[in-house]
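User: Predict the full complex structure for these chains.
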Amino acid sequence: MEVDKGKGEAEETRKVAEADRDTVTLKSSDGKLFEVSKEAAARLSTVLAGMIAGGSIDDNGTDLKQIGSEALENVVDYCNKHANSIPSAALISSSISFNTAPFKEPEEWERKFVDRLSHDALFDLVEAANFLGMERLLDVTCHKISEMMKGKSPDQIREVFNIKNDYTKEELEEIRQELAWAFYDD
Amino acid sequence: MEAASAKRRPAASAKRKPAARLTDELLVEILRRLPVRSVCRFKCVSRSWRNLISNPAHRKKLPQTLAGFFYRSWNWERFPRSARHFTNITGKGRPFIVPSFSFLPVPSDNVTLLDSCNGLLLCRCFGAGDASPPFHYVVCNPATKKWVMLPDGSGEDRTACLGFDPAVSSHFHVVEYVDDERSAFLNGFMHMLTSDEDNGNHVVVMVDMEGKTWRTIPVPTNIDNADASKLSIWILKDHAAHEWTPKHSVRIQFLFPEKDIEINMNWTLITFHPECNLIYFVYGWDDTLIAYEMDRKEVRVIRKLGNECSGPYLPYVPLFTEALADG
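Assistant: Here is the predicted structure of the two-chain assembly.
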C-alpha cells in the first residue's frame, strides 16, 4: 500500500489534483504513506471527514503522528474493504457515541479481519480507530478484545494489559470473598 | 494517580504492550461488552481497575448486577418511626443508593416501597394532591431519579407487583392482586404462586402483560410433600412440558450460624443472585443478612440489619438508561 509520491509538483496542479482525486494519502508516525478511498475515509472516520471537508488534507501525505504504520495499514485496509462491502451512507455518524445502545454484531468479514491480528496489533488498532473517530471499527475491535477477555482470570488480564497487582494479600482476599460468585465460569 | 502511573512504563515495554497504554475511556468501551460477572471479577486486577469499574461515570455504561437491598426499620422512640434503608450486597461501605427518594413529589415519609424489578421500583405515595384516592402508585428509577405517577388504582391496600424488562421494552406493568400472592416477573410473564381451587395443590400461574395468555403449571408433587427441614431449589426447565429439575437441596439447619431450631424459625428468603448460585435471606431476631452459595455449600454472614428492621427486603439491580415509559 506504500505510495511513492514525486515531490515538487506545482502548487496549482496539486490543488486541482487534490480536488479531483478519489483517494487521500495518509502518513504514519514513522513516515510511511498509505492511500485510501476518499469516500470510504470520509464515511468511516469523523476525523478524516472533517479534514477532507476542511481542506486540511495534504497530497504529500496527511500527517497522523499518533498512528504507527502497522495500525495505519490496518485502518486503510479496513476502509478499502469496507468501501467494497457496504453501501455508502449506511454508517455515517457525526461523532463517536459512547452510549448504551445495543451493539451491532460484527459482520463475517470484519470478524475475519480482526481475528488475524496479534494482541498488540489489535490494541494499536483500537487506539487508531478511537483517534480517527471510526465508530464502526472501534465497535469491531472492542468486541474482539472483550471476547478475548471473557472467562479470563485477573492474573491473565494483568498479563495482557501489563498491569502490576497493587493490592495487598489481605485486600485481595477480602475482595475475592465479596466477589466469590464472579469467579465461576462465564 | 494510580491509573496514570500504571500506564506510564519505560518506553520499551510500553511500545511492546499497546494494551497498557489504553485510556480509561477505551477500557470502559471494552469492559461494557463483557458479561457483568467478568467485569466484577476484574475489580481484582488492580486498584486502578477497581476504581475505574466503580467510578459513577463509568458505572452508567457498564453492565450492572445486584447492588443491594432496600428494607425498612421501625422504632417507636424515634421520629420518624419508620425509616427506609439500603444495604450494599457486600454489607459494607456507603449505600449504593441513598434511599431518601427526595426526587418524588411527596415527602419522603409518605413513600412506601412495594416492589422492585430490573432497576425500577414500585411505591405507594400518600398525600399527593387531594385526599382521594388515599395514595397513588408511582414507578421510579432511583438511579436516574425519573418517576411516573400511575392513573388511579383501586385505592385499596392490596398487593401490587411490578413487571419490567428493559431488554424487551421500556414499558412497565403494574399488577394489583385481590389476594396476597408471591410473584416474580420473568420473560414477559408475571408468575404467581397460588393454589389450585379444586384440589388445593400449589400451582404457578403465568400471565402475560396483556392478560390474554394464562397458563397454570403444577409444581412438582415432591415439593408439596417436601421435607420441611430442607430447602429445595427446583428449576422449571421447560415451560410447555411443565418439566421441573431439582437443582439443589440443603438442610435448613445448615444455613444458620446458630444451630438452635427455635431461634431459627424466623427466616425470610429474599432473592437469588441473578448471575450466580447464591441465595440471600435474613434470619434471626436481629435480622442477619446471609448469603448461601449453592456451588460451594458455604454460608456467609453479610451483616446484621438490626432487630428494628422489617421487610419487604427488595433486591435492587441499578438501571442507568434514561427511558421510562408509561404503563
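Residues 1-10, 87-101 of chain A have pLDDT under 50 and may be disordered.
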